[in-house]
Amino acid sequence: MASTLKFVDREQRYPTKRAAEARAEDFREIADRYAVPAAEAQAGRCSQCGVPYCSVHCPLHNHIPDWLRLTAEGRLREAYELSNATSTMPEICGRICPQDRLCEGNCVIEFSGHGAVTIGSVEKFITDTAWEEGWVEPVHVGPARGQSVGIIGAGPAGLSAADYLRTLGYDVHVYDRHDRAGGLLTYGIPGFKLEKHVVTRRVDRLRDAGIVFHEGFEVGREATLEDLRARHDALLIATGVYRPREIKVPGSDAGGVIEALDYLIASNRKSFGDAVPAFDEGSLNAAGKNVVVVGGGDTAMDCVRTAVRQGAASVKCLYRRDRANMPGSQREVANAEEEGVEFVWLSAPVSFDGDTVSSVRASRMRLGAPDASGRRAPEVDPGGELDLPADMVVKALGYDAEDLPALFGAPELGVTRWGTLLVDNKTLMTSLDGVFAAGDIVRGASLVVWAIRDGRDVASHIHAHLKAKMAAERKAA
């Protein structure tokens, strides 16, 4: 019995974070991984409960208690192999998943008041150790099938599907509009949450397996969707969602009012050493400026923390609900506050003043009755307005789907009323035969871990479709 109750006298300890003043000077990850004894000790806090709610609430249904036990016993290679069995990117999930809302937030010992097992940090430790020790093996490419799959989008859903499909023996070609694979893992998420070598080594592993990456390839410009259908036996659309939601207030198109993704891409490109003229001339650079970020999700947190590192004079986050009702990770809010970000809760912009923005006029808000999402809906509080000085305003209200039928030259491609792709729920096939879709372009803006899960699921459906197609062709012959 005692062996399962170590959480009672062994405190929860995350890897030590660097001091806020030091980490605000660079884009390195804010905490190092565990040393081996600390990882084993923290993994040993798992109670090995009968119903592992951590696994239930993980979209990938990772075998979390099992690899925690193996880690606690010092059997790290076995822990890695078990972790890797259900996820194509465990060290990435360990870094960027909102564990406080998923596995750790549903840990049984968290409910008991002793603090959750530090699952994400142990997951990161296991796989980083595996890379260092050479335990991460090349992709085991299956026997050649003589069929090819084209994947549009090199983000987490597309990369996950590519991994599984190559293992099954298919020729895989990945098309992406950017000059580097990874999607938002590469260009949307800052290095202080996910250092870029962590992504590039995953991409390199797929490239080494014979997966062909067509970078700087924009469907609709280099080729239509129909062109790609003619090249491949099946297609997967995994583009994600990139159309920013607008703020409909006066001055939203003023100089200095910018989109979150433009801002984050510019910052990440600079970290690669790219030439970024808009950054160098200042329009996408927060240095010396009073910055106001509008939004309360993880993208907003990425923006405020990036602005701090760029040397902003002040950084404020404007959000229309209160802290308890914000969609972003509470850990990210705490990190931002430690680094000097000021949160202006229950406030919404009324206007951005000046031809080149000089201030944000905002209205105080209050929370009314719950809306369709179950959260209390914000409404204007007649208590007054406030003015915030601003030389740069970053709009971070989330993303919707682009008009893919128009962009791809495929008007027959079915979409929902939200613009996401319409798929058969059983097969994940779109309205076009042999064309599948997965990730955010189907479910809307969501988490990376869900995109990885969707990539895994759609690969199995594509495999079933292509096996049936091959069988039908042989029968006809």
Automatic annotation (TrEMBL):
A Pfam family matched in the record: Pyr_redox_2
Domain FAD/NAD(P)-binding: 149-455
InterPro entries: DPD_II, FAD/NAD-bd_sf, FAD/NAD-binding_dom, GltD-like, Helical_ferredxn
Keywords linked to the UniProt accession: 4Fe-4S, Iron, Iron-sulfur, Metal-binding, Oxidoreductase
Iron-sulfur is among the record's keywords: yes
GO MF annotations in UniProt: 4 iron, 4 sulfur cluster binding; metal ion binding; oxidoreductase activity
Superkingdom as given in the UniProt entry: Bacteria
PANTHER family linked: GLUTAMATE SYNTHASE [NADPH] SMALL CHAIN, GLUTAMATE SYNTHASE [NADPH] SMALL CHAIN-RELATED
Protein name, as recorded: NAD(P)-dependent oxidoreductase
